[in-house]
Design a protein that fits this description.
alpha+beta, 6 strands
Amino acid sequence: MASKKEYLDFVLEQLSGLEGISYRAMMGEYLLYYNDKLFGGIYDDRFLVKVTGSSLELLPDAPQEIPYDGDKPMLLVTEIENKNYLRELILAMYEDLSVTK
């Protein structure tokens, strides 16, 4: 099932406190980047982030979900309404992430 553009727009609005957020459409889903580093995405209208040391620390109880068949688990972000929390999460994860080629 493809994600709705409206859900992407909502998540992008929640991340609007961070300059450098971008996205790429990919097979009906959306990959999310912060300053050219892939940190997560929108999959089946779920906001998922990569599993890193920082994301595990800040989302200790988050369910791990598979974005699509054959991929590694990612963490489901449920506190989407809290812009400050999302900002803190992405900034903390940034150092854990590799540069996207």
